[in-house]
Amino acid sequence: MPKLTVEGYGEFEVESGKRLVLAMEEDAKVDQLHACGGMGKCTTCRVEFVDGEPSKMTQAEKDCLAARELSGVRLSCQIQCAQDMSVKAISRVEGSGRADAGGPVAPEMTPDPQWVE
Q1: Which among 23, 37, 65, 82 counts the fewest CB atoms within 10 Å?
Q2: What is residue 20's predicted lDDT score, i.e. its pLDDT?
């Protein structure tokens, strides 16, 4: 089982293949934003990697980050926990002014992942 370390929250063993946004929310108890419901469209679920950043990303994540001219962050809704990783939770409900984290996130990657390097 991969280990997920979230700065300020601790280290957690998570199910292999689990979406990072869900691991942060369910296992680490981070009030992680996901306004679009984990569809890779809004960037509210972004995280900064400290260690173990996956080398591949989905086309949806690549397109979304490029459209918003963002670098140095990744979309937790488009990452599967397949290896040990350490992240900073930088997009939380607390302090965001939002009423809630966003719509429910499905266990399956949405949209259907098309992986790019």
Answers
A1: 82
A2: 98
